[in-house]
Write a structure and sequence with these properties.
Blueprint: H1 7-19, E1 41-45, E2 48-51, E3 56-59, H2 62-65, H3 74-84, H4 95-107, E4 113-117, H5 120-135, E5 139-143, E6 156-157, E7 167-168, E8 181-184, H6 189-199, E9 203-208, H7 222-234, E10 238-242, H8 255-259, E11 265-269, E12 279-283, H9 285-288, H10 307-322, H11 327-347, E13 352-357, E14 360-365, H12 368-380, E15 383-384, E16 393-394, H13 401-424
Helix pairs in contact: 3-10, 4-10, 6-7, 11-13, 12-13
The chain binds pyridoxal-5'-phosphate.
Pyridoxal-5'-phosphate binds near residues 119, 147, 269 and 279.
């Protein structure tokens, strides 16, 4: 088969490297994890993305999970156009903000009140500030390998020991700034009991991804999450679910209600913006009313509630409400791909770990060089997986049965070639 050409992508990426750091505006896009140069996308529709050399790909990244309806969904695009024609923002409350908040609240009733911001990072920062203001405590607890955006005090690696103050996970984060951040491992009930015994009454909030999406997929540990709920209640600590990925990802609502757990606050992002920059946090009136202008916890933003963004969110949730019953089909497709990956790897004796939950899946190769080969081979044959084993892949409502079939065929071929290569080496 003829190898595709990447001439235009390569030229553009070179130009990008002159003006953008590493040629990108977010590190994983650089393809450092998979080697080689990234493909650059010129346009997209449905399940497909097209690069500057007119190669087409079935996309499993979907703007890192935001595009659950697929690319350029006609309803979303028409809503965005209609709103944009009336002006791009006014800095006053707009009816679309009310409508999006209402739709979220209907699907996630524990969000009695909502604050919109422009990214998941800001949603988490707002929720944590509010939790600290509400509880009048400083400490927060997070879990190793979880990601909650790029706020200084959340870029923390676990140190050794039970619950550690951790170490900065990035240069530029002073140790002082993470002084109040406790980090521990996810899923160990014994540990968490001990931590609460020791620090419980000092912890303002526990923040957790109910399904991990930033270190491969980490399936939920329901008994652990329930234990967290019990402990936090007992110690008047707030439980915050970071649902920036998981909100509206598994059903029409939160992962929290999917699991029958009621956190105190929920952070949202990605899907609720229909592909445009958004974040939101919500909870009971009692907590949320501590935010300015009603309360004394300050949080403001120039672009929050932007009408164009809101219109994309409203159009997305409106469509998702009609697709409630079809989430199951998405999960089945993700399961199919996951099982196939696992089976093929096994039959070729290649050591991988596939993790799957609902409409998300990730694949980790024990040998990085095998992943690189596998990834490149899929890419060259029109399958765009997340360019890192630590990112999740997603299924959208735009992925057809044919898309999945083609994906399985290419996975099959990639493993076959990988095994052949492995045999030679
Ligand atoms: C993406 C993500 C964030 C950060 O959202 P941004 O919009 O990138 O700032 C926070 N938490 C989780 C779980 C995420 O996946």
């Amino acid at each position: 088969m003829k190898r595709p050409s990447y001439t235009k992508s390569t030229t553009l990426f070179k130009a990008a490297q002159h003006v953008l750091v590493g040629g990108v505006n977010s590190p994983v896009r650089s393809f450092r994890h998979v080697g080689g140069e990234p493909i650059l996308v010129k346009n997209a529709r449905g399940s497909r993305i097209y690069d500057y050399d007119r190669n087409s790909y079935i996309d499993y990244v979907l703007s890192y999970g935001a595009l659950i309806l697929g690319h350029a969904n006609p309803g979303v695009i028409s809503a965005v156009k209609k709103t944009a024609e009336k002006g791009l923002g006014y800095g006053t409350t707009h009816e679309l903000e009310v409508e999006l908040a209402r739709r979220i609240q209907e699907a996630i009733p524990l969000c009695e009140k909502i604050r919109f911001v422009s990214s998941g990072t800001e949603a988490v920062m707002g929720a944590i500030r509010l939790a600290r203001g509400f509880t009048k405590r400083n400490k927060i607890l997070k879990f190793e390998y979880s990601y909650h955006g790029h706020a200084d005090y959340l870029l923390v690696k676990a140190g050794s020991g039970l619950a550690t103050m951790g170490l900065p996970a990035s240069k530029g984060v002073p140790k002082d700034f993470i002084r109040h951040t406790l980090v521990t491992s996810y899923g160990n009930i014994n540990n968490i009991n001990k931590i609460f015994k020791r620090y419980g009454s000092e912890i303002a909030a526990v923040i957790v991804e109910p399904v991990g999406g930033n270190n491969g997929v980490i399936p939920p540990d329901i008994p652990f999450l329930k234990r967290l709920r019990t402990l936090t209640r007992q110690f008047s600590t707030l439980l915050i679910f970071d649902e920036v990925i998981t909100g509206f990802r598994f059903h029409f609502g939160s992962a929290a209600s999917y699991f029958g757990i009621k956190p105190d606050m929920i952070c949202l992002g990605k899907i609720i913006g229909g592909g445009l920059p958004i974040g939101a946090y919500g909870g009971s009136k009692k907590i949320m009313n501590h935010l300015a202008p009603l309360g004394s916890v300050y949080q403001a933003s120039t672009f929050s509630g932007n009408p164009v963004v809101m219109s994309a969110g409203v159009a997305t949730l409106r469509k998702l409400a009609l697709l409630k019953k079809d989430y199951k089909k998405l999960s089945e497709k993700a399961a199919l791909i996951s099982q196939y990956l696992e089976n093929k790897a096994k039959s070729h004796n290649i050591d991988i770990s596939v993790r799957h939950f609902g409409t998300m899946f990730s694949v980790y190769f024990k040998k990085r060089k095998y992943f690189k080969f596998f990834y490149r081979r899929l890419l060259e044959n029109g399958i765009y997986f997340a360019p890192s084993e630590y990112e999740s892949n997603f299924i959208s409502f735009a992925h057809s049965k044919e898309d999945i079939k083609k994906t399985l065929r290419e996975i099959d071929e990639a493993f076959y070639l990988l095994a052949k290569r492995k045999g030679r080496s």
